[in-house]
Amino acid sequence: MIDPAAFYAALSQSGVSFFAGVPDSLLKHFCAFVSDHCSETSHVICANEGNAVAMGVGSYLATGKVPLIYMQNSGLGNAINPLLSLADKEVYAIPMILLIGWRGEPGIKDEPQHLKQGRVQLALLEAMEIPYKIIAADSTDYAEIVRDMVEEAKQSCMPVALVVRKGTFADYKTKASPETSYNMSREEALQVILETDSSDCIVSTTGKTSRELYELRKKRGSDKHDFLTVGSMGHSSSIAAAIALTRPEIRVMCIDGDGALIMHMGAMAVIGKLGLENFVHLVINNFCHESVGGQATAAEALDMEHLAKAAGYKHYYSVAQIGQLRDAMLEIKDLSGPILVEVRVKKGSRADLGRPQSSPQENKEAFMHQIR
Ligand SMILES: Cc1ncc(C[n+]2csc(CCOP(=O)(O)OP(=O)(O)O)c2C)c(N)n1
């Protein structure tokens, strides 16, 4: 396996000193090392992968140095526009290294939402004419690969990619404190939400929120089906909003995460403008990307109350205790939306958390049947 510190050192030796990206579970040990060793001016955890590529472009314009942009391959779609219409050598010709975690690599067991993305990963880069190298746990020549790829990015003035296989990086234990000052866990919050929920359907966000929701439903023996947004991070609220828009007689709740909300925050402006009376946006805020390693999101600096009100939401609640959450859930029953409920929770999840046993298509059928 590659030691994150040694990989970072190889990048430093090649002059890479600016890092931006969206965290990925396959890259979490490298991301944690970068978080611990870079200042706030040389490492930015971005809203989405397009945001990260653009940050890389800005840093290059300012310093002339090759930046590194990290992402899960799920996020390549978010990055394609600025890669092809901004950084590409036929436009502004900006050298940068893309470090891409390869979920769904053919032959490696993974979740349904990663399989197609993993299978087309290399072909996508080829179609974009982005040169790439694959690195894995046994890539003893990784320092040479890094040096050559930085050189290639500089020579050809364009983005180049390092595609990282599962299990490439050795463990790195972060020095950052894992705690927030809140005592409710996300799973406890979800439990209260299920006990008190008065909506007709729930659309839940990517990552462990949907996994916990799925398990809790099963445990309760409930026959209700939630729409689990297993991929497509940041888009749950838009899915839920369109259900609310086209079916005004039913009440729809989106259970979002702070990272996902921030990833496509523009959706909030659209929801506010639509004035969806039957829409509740519940954000489980643990201030981090807990599902992929707990890296901080920009939520710490975000005032969700002002954000919600500025976007046109009618009501806002912020809760941090089980009792407060229960009260808020009961109060919103009789209110017109859009409503934003921010639920502040501590970081963390169970180590033995399972994954949905039904396929996305079974999930879709059951959900559609339920709201018909
Ligand atoms: C476009 C995209 N980028 C990155 C990921 C990897 N990813 C999956 S879950 C997740 C974190 C979500 O954070 P948040 O919404 O705050 O929820 P939490 O995990 O904290 O519950 C990330 C980055 C992804 N699935 N899709």
pLDDT under 50 segments (min length 5)?
none
Structural class: alpha/beta
CATH fold name of the largest domain:
Rossmann fold
For the report, how would you describe the main beta sheet?
6 strands, parallel
Give the distance, in angstroms, between the N- and C-terminal Cα atoms: 51 Å
Q: What is the class of the largest domain in the CATH system?
A: Alpha Beta
What sort of overall outline do the alpha carbons produce when their principal axes are compared?
A: elongated
Order of the strands making up the biggest sheet: 2-1-3-4-6-5
Q: Note the run of SSEs as H and E.
A: HEHEHEHEHEHEHEHEHEHHEEEHEHEH
For the CA atoms, what is the radius of gyration? 21 Å
Number of helices: 14
* Mean pLDDT level: 96
Brief summary:
By secondary structure, the chain is an alpha/beta fold. It is built from 14 helices and 14 strands.
Which helices and strands, and how do they pair?
Elements: H1 4-13, E1 19-21, H2 28-37, E2 43-45, H3 49-63, E3 68-72, H4 76-87, E4 96-101, H5 112-127, E5 132-135, H6 142-156, E6 159-164, H7 186-196, E7 201-204, H8 208-219, E8 227-228, H9 236-246, E9 252-257, H10 258-263, H11 266-274, E10 279-285, E11 288-289, E12 295-296, H12 304-311, E13 315-319, H13 322-332, E14 339-344, H14 360-371
Parallel strand pairs: 1-2, 1-3, 3-4, 4-6, 5-6, 7-8, 7-9, 9-10, 10-14, 13-14
Antiparallel strand pairs: 11-12
Helix pairs in contact: 1-2, 1-6, 3-4, 7-8, 7-13, 9-11
Bound molecules: thiamine diphosphate (TPP).
